[in-house]
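Q: Convert this sequence to C-alpha cells.
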Amino acid sequence: MKNVELKHLRLIKHIVDGGSMSNATHKMFLTQSALSHMLREFEENLGVKIFARRGKKLHLTDQGNTILFHAEKVLSEFSELEKAVANFKDAKAERIKISTACYTSYHWLPAVVKLFREKTPEVMIDIVIEATQKPLSYLENGKLDIAITDSKPLVPSRYRTDFLFEDVFLLLVAKNSPYLRSEPFTAGLLNGEVLFIYEMQEDMSTAFTQFIRPNGIELAAVTKMQLTEGLIEMVAAGLGVTIMPCWMASPYLKQGKVKAIKLPGARVSRKWYAVSHKDATKEQELFIDLLQRELKHNFNSGEIVI
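A:
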C-alpha cells in the first residue's frame, strides 16, 4: 500500500457522514469531480473497491467498512495530536525564578535576562523581589531556581555553586575633594568624615566589614540611603564620601559627577556566586553560563579604571 494520505481517510469519513459525494464537497472544499478522482485514485492504490453505487447513493463494501474503522481510529489519533500541539503553543512558558542578595545587583540583571530571552524566547525569567537579601532561604523552600549571592555560601550537597565575578570597591569623593591631592591617600584621613552608605545593617556592609572597622576609622556620622542616585548627589555636593563597587560607580564617573580613589591597603571586594539545584534544567544552566560570561566580561577584568 502506498500514497495513503490523511486526505483519503477524511474523504471516506465525509462521504459516509454526509451520505453522498456532493455533501463531502462542503467538508473538503473541493469539487465533486476532484473528489471522485481522489476516491478512484485511492481505490486503485489499495486494489479494492471501497464504495458500491446503488442508484444515486454510495454504500460501503465489506472492505470499505474495514477501511472506515481504521480511518476513524487514525483520524481520531491525529485530532488528539493536533490538540496536543496546540496545547504546547498555548501552555505557559517555562519560568526560571531568580533573586539576588542585594538590591543594587538588579542594575546588571536586565542585560543578562535580555540576552537569555534572545536565545530562549520560550522561557520566562521571574525576578522574585521579595527574596532579595535572603535568596538561599527561598531556594531551599522551592520558591527560587537560582539564588545569586555576594559571598560563597555553605550549602548542602544537593546544590551547586558557580562563581560569577569579583566586585571591587572604590572610595567616591566630590570633584574638588582635598583627598584627591593627598599623596599617598591613607585610611586615617577619613577619621571625622561623613560616610553615606546603603540602607542595611553595618555587619552586612562590605565597606564596614572590610575597610572601616579593620582600619579603625572613627567616622563623624553614617547616613544610610536606599538609592544610588541619592548617595552620588550627597557626595557630589561635598557633604561626605561613599564606598561602592566599581561597576556601580562607573556611569557616574563617566559623567564626571564624582571622582574615585582606590582604597588603600588590602583589596576590598566581594565575590558573587549563583546557587542552584544540581539537577538544574538545561535552561537554568544556560542562564548561569550567561551570567558567568557576561559578568566576568564586564566586571571582572582585573583592572580598576578611575
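The domain at 6-90 is CATH 1.10.10.10 (Arc Repressor Mutant, subunit A).
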